[in-house]
Each structure stands twice: as structure tokens, then as C-alpha cells.
Amino acid sequence: MALxxxxxxxxMDATPSEVYKWHTIERVAKETAEQFGFREIRIxxxxxxxxxxxxxxxxxxxxxxxxxxxxxxxxxxxxxRPEGTAGTIRAVLENGILNExxxxxxxxxxxxxxxxxxxxxxxxxxxxxxxEMLGSASPLADAExxxxxxxxxxRLGIKNVELNINSIGCPECRAKYRQALxxxxxxxxxxxxxxxxxxxxxxxxxxxxxxxxEDQEIAKDAPLITDYLCDxxxxxxxxxxxxxxxxxxxxxxxPKIVRGLDYYTRTVFEFLTTDIGSQAAVCAGGRYDGLVETxxxxxxxxxxxxxxxxxxxxxxESQGCEFEEPExxxxxxxxxxxxxxxxATALITELRDMGVYAEYDLIGRSLKAQMKYADKIGAKFxxxxxxxxxxxxxxxxxxxxxxxxxxxxxxxxxAERLSDFIMxxxxxxxxxxxxxx
Length: 437
Ligand code: HAM
Prior knowledge:
This protein has 437 residues and is α+β, with helices and mostly antiparallel strands.
């Protein structure tokens, strides 16, 4: 097939035969978030470009290289959201949600757009399940947020994921750390990649996140943020670790985690797996106590995380985790002839209103072709409806798994009895005697 237009590089389709995997993850994520008291928020796909420049940070790769920005008219530009946090905080502030009491806890499932080099687990349009909590500066909130992410991951049956945590301090201790990093890297300036030369001037913390082998080698002995934390930040980090211990959540302290977005303060974390190629984060987040104020709100501590749903699916597939199978067709009616087709149409309408998943012939195919189709869609019961059946007001309902046929009289209560019979047969153990006539 020579399609004239194909999907853009770095995007994916979720076909009907695969979409149940998404539904499984979305249901578990939503239910777990709600159990922790998070409520769903929905925000626009695009925002004023300035929101991300201010919120995510103009020295980040995301803002500098990866944003999809369009200009509509004049000089105003809009950007497809590269992540969910900035838009969510904007929406929380714009809708006065903080006035409803603190903490405010919201979650979202949305698409994000980053112009990255597309590869396995790295897309240009990808999806995130994210949670944001506003109004608590307590380290218990950090542990609670991590615990929510960890619960979603384990309820999906995912194993071999390592939680890495770090503290990148507050603006005061970070300023000292920046100086120490600059002093360390400056003598190596000429050996660094071009991006890192720039990072050295603008945001030296980002040097620790460089993917280049040579730069990683240089960064190996760089000073560690954990040695520069002020007393309050160090105390906060200790308390987060204590609460994670109480919650029974395993973690590794990784002082090299700096995160790619500028808004973070204090606790940062990543859930890492090696099951989908080279080490990848399936979930990441942290505290961002300054973001609400940066976006024009009253200073409010906040924190959150986001999970990459494509990476979650890849991990689940590679680990053979189970996905919930979709509801299949419960009844297929194969009419033969015009009169039977009319009866089937009326019957299907009634059955669907009673909650039965039912299908019938929409193409005018032969009985043989219809039976093949019923088999393909996995119909649990099949009725063949011909002139004979209608005349004698008697029909057989065939159980496709056992081959067993059950005779029903076609009368005013037929649809109701049939619906009860199908429901009872599907919910095993229910008595179907008495539903047949
Ligand atoms: P992030 O680390 O940029 O953080 O992204 C979070 C997660 O989204 C990653 O761990 C990964 O699973 C997934 N992800 C990121 N980029 C891609 C991509 N190109 N293709 C596929 N998956 C990807 C944030 O976005 C923050 N907003 C998280 C957060 C929420 N922090 C506080 N609250």
C-alpha cells in the first residue's frame, strides 16, 4: 500500500487492538491518584510560549531546542506543551483553586510535545500521567508523592524499577554549588561538547546530565550537591528519607540527578529501568517551591511527578505484565433474509438498552461469512435467525465456547430473558435455569 501521507516521525498510533493497554494504565493511575485524594484537571494542549520560557526555564534543552512553537498572527506565539506542570500550575492559579483550601492535589493524563531525536521510548508526541501537590512544604508531602508514583508502578505489576532520589537544595545552597561546579569544570572547558560549553556559562548543573561519554568522564569527580546543602535543606532531605523508610519504599541516593527542567528545588527523583534499552526514566519529578511565585501566584511550596505512558507500556510488555482485556462481543445475531434482519434490528436495539454487547450483520453477508465474523470478534453467543425461527417463534442460542444450544421462545419477554441468560452465563456460577422458556 502506498499511502500518500504517513504519520510524523516520533508519533504513534494506538490501534483498537492495542488501546486496551492504555486503558489499563489510565484506570490504575486514575484510581490510585483518587485514592490519594488527587482530582483530575484538564488543561489546553497549547499555551502562551512565555509560560514555558518562564516556568520550565530558558536555559533548558526543552525550551532552547525542543519546543513546537507556532505564531498565529503578529508577534504572539503559542507552544504545544512540552510537559504538564507549567500549564497545570497556571490553571490552578487562574481558576483560584488554591482558595479552595490546602493542600491542593491534582492529576492529569495528557499528550506532550518535544522535538527530540526520536528513538525507542523517546518520542516527539508522548503521553504523561502526572500529579501535582500544592501547599505543603513538609517532607511528608515529598514521601507521599513518591509513594503515589511507586504505588501506580507496582499496581501495574512492573518490577526492576529503581527509585533514585537526590536533593538539589534551595536557591541559596545551589548558588554555592554552582560556583563549585563552575570552578571544577572551567579548566576542562575546551574538552567539553559545544552544548556543555554553553551550559558552563548559563546553567552548570546541566553538565551533570550530559549524555556524551567524554563529558561524563570529566564529570565523574565533580563536586556533589549533597555536600553543599544548607542545614534546612539537609534536614528536609533526611526527613524525606525517614518517611520513605516508614512507608517501606526502597531508594538509592543519586547525587548526580539534577533533572532537565529549571523549576526544581530540594527533592528530585527518578524511577529508572534498564528493561527498555539503555537506562531510562519511566517516571520523574520533584519539589518546585518557587514555580507558583514565578508564574505570578503567592509563594506556595509545591511538588509532583510525571510518568511517561509509552515507556510504562514498553516496560510492561518487556516484563510480560498483564493488561486488562477489553469487553468482547457477548451476542452476535446472524439474520437470514429481510424479515429476519428487521427482527434482529429490533431485538439488538432492545438488548443493547439492557446492557448487552451485541452485534449483527451490517453488510448482507452469507451465513457462512457471518459465522466467520462472529468467531473473529470472539462472540460468546450466536443466534441464527431465519424465516423458520420467526414463524415458529422459537430460536436456539449457541454458546460458542461449549457448543451447547439453548432453546428460547420468541415472545414479549424474549429480550429480557435472553439478556438475563447472557449476563448469568458470563458471570459464572449464576443459575440460568428459569431464564429459558
Ligand atoms: P520529565 O522528566 O521531563 O519531567 O518527564 C517525565 C517523564 O516523561 C519521563 O520520566 C519520561 O518517562 C517521560 N518522557 C519525557 N520525555 C519523553 C519523550 N520524549 N518520549 C517519551 N517519554 C518521555 C517532566 O515533564 C516534569 N513535568 C515532571 C514533574 C511533574 N515534575 C514535577 N511535577
